[in-house]
Amino acid sequence: MSYGNLTLYKVELHLLTPTILSERVGKAGYSTLSRAIPGSTLRGAILSMLYREGINVQQESTSPTIAFSPAAPEGGVMAHAFTVECKLTKRRDDIGDVKEVFSLLRSMGIDVQSNPEILASSSELERKYKEFMLKLEQEEHGLSALLKDASGSYFKETPDGWTEVKPPVETQVNVSISKTREAAEAERLWSYDAVSPGAKYKALIADLRGNLMKWLSKLGLDSKFEIGLGRGVSRGFGRACVKLSTVDLSSMISSMKSLLLKQLEKGYAVLQALSPVASTTLGGMGLSSVPSLAPSDTLTVPSSWIVSAITSLKAAFKLKTVAVYGKTMLVKGYSSRSRRPRPWITALAPGSIMVLKPSEESMKSREGLAEMLALSCLCGFNELSCIGLNFASPFEDKFPAWRREHDV
To answer: What are the structural domains, with CATH classification, of the chain?
Structure first.
């Protein structure tokens, strides 16, 4: 199938200076670092660089066609909503904190790929969960109290266990100097939690009309350039090197399609959120948001946003959200163009699991449905993917089941 001018890029991000990627601003400075770089931050950094170099990106601001996924720490696997970790750790100097991380689904004997319909039945899932937790308490007394939710975190498997993938962080303390006294001012002490230079991230950019590389070519740039990322760019923070490489779109869609087809044989599609997931509507009370891929829980793929850019796509498939597992969060932001805060959006947190049931009409063409779902996962399910929302992937449980001989 032809996808018009759609180009998919793999983004490799390498931090050159300390970078402030904070989720919270306190009285004493910036703290609470993000697990991943939000897609809106990556978008703003790249478009700002193009704008400063004289490229007219006004149309991309008003009618966006480039989607930016969140940039995840390199080498990490995102934990899903049924992933837990033990609070006890065993220190290893060369690889960090080794933890006992396991999937509750596998521990309960649930294979989502071959039996996705069980996630649509919350009562059956709850029964299996209670049975497993009772077994866990009997075999390992007190262990259940040491377990905590790990969804949304990134882990890497090592020979000794699983270790959380976290970029190195450094704390910097700054004071304000009085211009008249040339000494530190009272009550003017700030601290910054910044990601250290050398940290690496990975992301995807879906360019529906193929404009990004044209803009870079006008500046004489190839696929490698520098941007300013996060807060404090004017003070030297957040310098990063970006390397873009074209991804074989057909190959990625094919691999996702095979996973989805296996799920669709049972009449369901199960997706894992790779970014915050939300949809918005504009009504008499203003802008409202719901933590779902569609306001009415009925999803259409491909969305009108994708079809408007890729006119060769005609078919529209309908799916209904029948179950969601995960946490909700608030997505906040600031618009540099309008110079005011963006509306707060209530969204599903990354790692959440969404269970979708296609309509009978859509199930008549499972091949086409699986392909459009895969395309939507890569490009984002609607226009909010331009600010890093609504990216997903076919659910694939990469974490092991709990085993009796665990080492904590």
So the answer is: 7-75+167-173+189-246 (2.40.30), 79-163 (no CATH), 249-394 (3.30.70)
